[in-house]
Amino acid sequence: MAAVMGVLFVHLSLVAKRHSYVQAQAIPGLLLLVVMLDFFMADQLCSQVPMLRNLEYVVCYYMTGSYKIQDYGYCTRTEYYRDLAYVVSFLPYYWRAMQCARRWFDEGQTSHLVNLGKYVSAMLAAGARVGYEKESTMGWYCLVVVVSSAATMYQLYWDFVKDWGLLQFHSKNPWLRNELMLRRKFIYYLSMVYI
User: Fold this and answer.
1) Where are the alpha helices (DSSP H) in the chain?
2) Which residue numbers in the chain have pLDDT < 50?
3) For residue 48, what are the contacts with CB-CB under 8 A and spacing of at least 6?
4) Using one digit for the tens of pLDDT, what is the confidence trace for 60-110?
5) Global model pTM greater than 0.70
6) How far are the Cα atoms of 26, 77, 93 from residue 144, in angstroms, in the given order?
7) Do residues 47 and 159 make contact, with C-beta atoms less than 8 angstroms apart?
């Protein structure tokens, strides 16, 4: 967490002090205007973290030659793999958090900081999980359960209420947002049930 906040502070300091683009370019994230395509791509990358972790394992398994001796656990036992697993889990959320910070810096809306918290909670959950993989104690296990549960609830609330506009009690369309793209409301309700 200290590293995340430190990098965030460095980003904001460089931009606030009006350093040139070249000086601040060493730390990507807050340097360019963030548009919808950036959000979309970063959200897709965040959705692919489990796949990236599996891909990381497959690459390690074949590059180390573990497949020759059928040593399926070699990669998970090495220190480098576990550290790389954290980086692979951390970076997509970090990039998305930096986009939220940039939007907050540009627009000044606190909703962007709250959205940033969603991605910071995911980074904390990933860090707790990697910590538990390194040292499987009851303390780490409890930390993983608490941090992951809190991050999941935070993310679900944000996705349902803020991103999708669901659970709007005072809307003219019960449980939906006021403005709908489709005329038939039952399609939205069916989608909620089947998703």
Assistant:
1) 2-16, 21-24, 36-47, 49-63, 66-69, 74-77, 79-107, 110-134, 138-157, 186-194
2) 1-4, 21-26, 29-30
3) 92
4) 777 777 777 777 777 777 777 767 777 777 888 888 888 888 888 888 888
5) no
6) 32, 20, 17
7) no
